[in-house]
Design goal:
- This protein has 382 residues and is an alpha/beta fold.
- The protein has 2 domains: 206 residues, Response regulator (Rossmann fold); 84 residues, 3-Layer(aba) Sandwich (Rossmann fold), CATH 3.40.50.2300.
- Helix content is 42%, strand content 19%.
- It is built from 11 helices and 15 strands.
- It has a 6-stranded mixed sheet, with helices on one face. A 5-stranded parallel sheet has the order 4-3-5-6-7, sandwiched between helices. A two-stranded antiparallel ribbon has the order 1-2.
- The protein starts with a helix and ends with a strand.
């Protein structure tokens, strides 16, 4: 066979295995072999894509910390703005401490603070603003019982956990609302403590809701002010009979009472679900809060700090639970809502743990007496 003939035969043999069309290559392979090649190719492509995605996420996480948000709603304008800023500095301090170093297991927590004027209508409005933000994971608030009650249904619908920093009526927890906890004694618990004090003094105070002492019947020995601080302070400033003992329910005891009544506030006794700075005079919290705000923390600041840390603990638990995933996933509202009830910690106000309805177990109550026109005054019965 000639060399030319051999070359022709080789070309004919190759043409049986491979045929060419313009722009395309066709392999005449058995079906099993073709399927294996396609499968291996897909696996290779998926591995390349996964490696690229993981590399991207690694670079992204190392350069830009992931962030989540919590909300704070309080009165930052109007009569009770000073109380709102007490809460703001306390929550900011809690976030500063958690955001140090690597933050909350690689996350930074941002604060969104909104003003509700202590008004129920405005409280519900601001609750809807927070609920609309997909990065929002939980809320500290509100300060007035009526404002808190108005906002809770909005948070419940949005699956947002809520850590309440001040006293609310027990009816808020009846029935229990999943994801809602309070670090403060209820209004009923504080009233019960006040009743113990007055009974111990042999007094049966008449309950007053107005700012006009003229409504007090003659021969009254004691009154109990069931009003917010400005109304209570106005009552004291108008009171001329200094022989009447005056007590206040939880909402009456506030800085604004002293601002309105001045020296006439001296001797006023009220109940508080939180302690002032003198309770923990040597704690790091008091020094850090004063460095941040320029003022010593009052009872609302103490409980706001504790409430913020309860919410942050809940977020942290959700993040730790997520560490097992190979991809980066922001903790969900539902996870935080489910975990907040199980939070237990040593707070500035004492040991914090919650019952199945979200109320603080063995919630403490303090009794104060105003002296030298200073709020909160002196603890007379811790």
């Amino acid at each position: 066979m000639t060399t030319v003939q051999k070359q022709v035969d080789q070309l004919n043999h190759r043409s049986k295995l491979t045929s060419f069309r313009p722009g395309l290559l066709y392999l005449n392979l058995p079906p099993e072999a073709a399927q294996k090649i396609v499968a291996y190719s897909l696996v290779f492509i998926l591995l390349v894509v996964a490696a690229g995605w993981l590399g991207y996420r690694q670079i992204q996480s190392s350069n830009t910390p992931r962030t989540v948000k919590i909300g704070l709603v309080a009165p930052f304008e109007g009569l009770y703005r000073a109380s709102g800023y007490e809460l703001l500095f306390a929550v900011k301090l809690a976030l500063q401490e958690r955001n140090q170093g690597a933050g909350l297991h690689g996350y930074r927590v941002e604060l969104v603070a909104l003003n509700d004027f202590n008004d129920p209508v405005e409280a519900a409005k601001q609750a809807r603003v927070l609920a609309a933000d997909p990065a929002m994971l939980g809320v500290v608030g509100h300060l007035a019982p009526a404002a808190t009650l108005a906002a809770i249904p909005v948070y419940q619908e949005a699956e947002l956990a809520v850590s309440i920093p001040w006293s609310v009526e027990a009816t808020l927890f009846e029935p229990a609302r999943p994801g809602v906890v309070s670090v403060a004694a209820t209004v009923e618990q504080t009233n019960a403590r006040l009743e113990q004090i007055t009974q111990g003094l042999g007094l049966d105070p008449r309950i007053i809701t107005s700012s006009d002492p003229a409504e007090i019947p003659a021969a009254t020995q004691a009154v109990q002010l069931a009003a917010e601080a400005v109304t209570a302070g106005t009552f004291l400033s108008n009171l001329s009979n200094q022989d009447i003992r005056v007590f206040g329910q939880v909402e009456a005891g506030n800085l604004q009472l002293v601002q309105v009544a001045g020296a006439k506030a001296d001797g006023f006794i009220f109940v508080s679900p939180g302690p002032g700075a003198e309770i923990s005079a040597d704690s790091d919290f008091v020094a850090a809060y004063q460095a941040l705000s320029g003022l010593p923390p009052g009872p609302r600041a103490v409980l706001a700090y504790d409430a913020a840390n309860v919410l942050l603990d809940s977020i942290e638990q959700a993040i730790i639970k997520d560490q097992g995933y190979w991809y980066a996933r922001q903790p969900s509202r539902a996870e935080i809502k489910a975990s907040i009830l199980a939070v237990s910690r040593q707070g500035v106000s004492g040991v914090i743990a919650f019952g199945p309805d979200g109320r603080r177990i063995d919630a403490p109550v303090w009794v104060y007496q105003i002296s030298e026109a200073r709020y909160p005054g002196t603890v007379i019965n811790p």
